[in-house]
């Protein structure tokens, strides 16, 4: 039900923008949470004619280092679950490049931010949440003004994500993620969380004091 609701929010933005001849700019998340959302968008595309021709997307994050073609990459995830099943123009979706040489990441991250800005900024950002309150891969301690950057993953994030890998040591130790500030600049934010494992992080995010120690609490400062 939550995914159908979220898909409805996205579809409304896409259709309203299409009527005006404008692009819809959507921030995408990966992980287990949005899978049912993407299934619903694919269904709307196939059965209701929802077109993604006017859609530009930016994904929150990618492991580092990570080849785009690896089955563990978020590039692969997004293509397989969504992009290859809809009519989005491949040049309109963007996912951080997990193979940028380390000494060029700063420049690359600034370019990623610039691309979002040039597209007109995010109309909507979709988020999941880590059990430690991370959004994107902004782990506890991520500054409120942070932008896209390289980050070291928390051990509990690596453990949570290890189900997708053969062993824990195969889970990358780093990721490139949009920052808290990049997320907060979206005109609307929709955070999805399913199941009891997320209840503690959600309780703190909604009822706790905003703190960089639990990044999702910072969303309390967003106006929409
Ligand atoms: C993924 C992302 C992460 C996940 C979070 C929850 O792009 O940015 O913040 O949303 O780790 O992951 P799942 O949905 O697998 O529980």
Provide a descriptive summary of the structure in words:
- With 224 residues, this protein is α/β, with parallel strands linked by helices.
- Helix 1 crosses helix 2.
- It is built from 7 helices and 8 strands; from the N terminus they run αβαββαβαββαβαβα.
- The protein has helices at 2-19, 35-48, 74-81, 105-118, 155-161, 180-184, 199-207, and strands spanning 24-28, 55-59, 61-64, 93-94, 124-127, 149-152, 174-177, 189-191.
- The protein binds fructose -6-phosphate.
- Fructose -6-phosphate binds next to loops.
Q: Order of strands in the sheet with the most strands?
A: 4-2-1-5-8
Binned, the helix content reads 25-40%
Distance between the termini: 21 Å
Indicate the overall shape: globular
Bound molecules: fructose -6-phosphate
Question: Helix and strand succession?
Answer: HEHEEHEHEEHEHEH
**Sheet with most strands:** 5 strands, parallel
Helix tally equals 7
Let me know the average pLDDT.
Answer: 98
